[in-house]
Design goal:
By secondary structure, the chain is of the alpha+beta class. 40% of the residues lie in helices and 21% in strands.
């Protein structure tokens, strides 16, 4: 990409969330690699999934409005994403814990019939790994332990064995 294109993408990134900004995410889903394909050595670049959710006028939305894959840079993926947003729309890049990146990956897998097999495999692995990362975060952050209930239970049933 040219410096002008990079600057164009940068101008459309919101430095902080605002009610009129689109919410987006951009994550690497395919790592650059060299592989054998039909006896030929093939080098493939990094690929990034980018997705955007419409401004939260009526509250947050689960489903992204657009999901794309771009390579070889984040800027290229974001430039592709901006082609699906209204002219002049600002995009706030959220963290993976702020949006459902696995859902975006599942949408990409279901809707992009042009994915090469290595891309589809990597995107599916990303979605699987992302769901596992979320499961681990849930296990760390949430519990059914309630000290008040435990005291009540001990009074009613006696000490736990």
């Amino acid at each position: 990409m040219s410096g002008d294109a990079d600057a164009g993408v940068a101008r459309r990134l919101a430095p902080r969330w605002a009610p009129d900004a689109w919410t987006g995410v951009c994550v690497r889903v395919v790592a650059a690699a060299t592989r054998e394909d039909g006896g030929a050595r093939v080098t493939t670049p990094d690929h990034y999934l980018a997705a955007a959710w419409a401004p939260a006028v009526r509250g947050p939305a689960r489903w992204p409005e657009a999901v794309v894959i771009g390579s070889p840079t984040v800027t290229r993926a974001l430039d592709e994403l901006f082609r699906h947003l209204p002219d002049g729309a600002m995009l706030f890049l959220a963290a993976r814990d702020d949006v459902d990146a696995a859902l975006a990956a599942d949408i990409l897998l279901a809707c992009d019939r042009n994915l090469e097999p290595y891309q589809a495999q990597a995107v599916a692995a990303f979605a699987r790994d992302e769901r596992e990362r979320v499961r681990e975060a849930i296990a760390r952050r949430y519990t059914d332990s309630d000290s008040g209930f435990e005291r009540f239970r001990a009074r009613v049933l006696g000490p736990a064995r």
